Amino acid sequence: MPNAETSVFIELLKFIYKPNKDKEENSSMYRNMYRTLLLFIVSFPITLILTIIITYITNKPSKAHESIDDYNFTLFLLACLFIPLIEEIAFRLPLRYSKINLSLSISVLSFYTINYFFTLKDHFDIENFFFLRIAASILVGITCYLLCVKYSNSLVKLYRNNFNVIFYFFSVLFALMHISNYEFTLDTLLLAPIITLPKLISSFVGGFVRVKYGFLYCLLLHSFHNMIPFLIISTKILQ
Description:
By secondary structure, the protein is mostly helical. It has one domain (about 30-60, about 75-239). It is about 75% helix and about 0% strand. It has helices at about 5-15, 30-60, 75-90, 100-115, 130-150, 150-175, 185-190, 190-195, 195-210, 215-239. α2 (about 30-60) packs antiparallel against α9 (about 195-210), α3 (about 75-90) packs antiparallel against α10 and α4 (about 100-115) packs antiparallel against α5.
């Protein structure tokens, strides 16, 4: 009989193999937080070790740390709270269907897409028609919401019958989005499935936490994943 610590990992593996959208567990906040921390304690070292190995083998270091030129509290909030929040809205929020969940997700995803048509330092560069890009993504989100209202029954049925496809789609999309952290070359594109493997694992774990425990817990998990590397890099800068 597996104990509570072991059972959460068994549930995770079963979920990744066959995702299902059962109702969120009706558990205490303490239990959900405890299980989320357990998953973080195991998943973070795995993804970190994989990242180091893959970087060594492919000689493709991430450019994400280059944005941390100088430690400050604003940058900490951006890397460890704001970016995780935006990415969780885009990729994990819609794993529980509602009109507003899907519309917010599509709005953020459209913002990422629109940004590729501009020369930007990153997705949150406030130059180059920033407010126009924001307005366009909001318009896409509103349009999506109106379509959700019109086709609500069809979308509910789609989620019910194809949740595993939806889960895998958002998980893979999350991983592939992070290919932008690397120098854009042909071999980077060819190696994308390998380079983004750690992000895919993180996405599977985050998706499981979101579906089983709720959005707040997957947001915390994501924040933890960003916080440790940020603090390590910042500590080196401050030395």
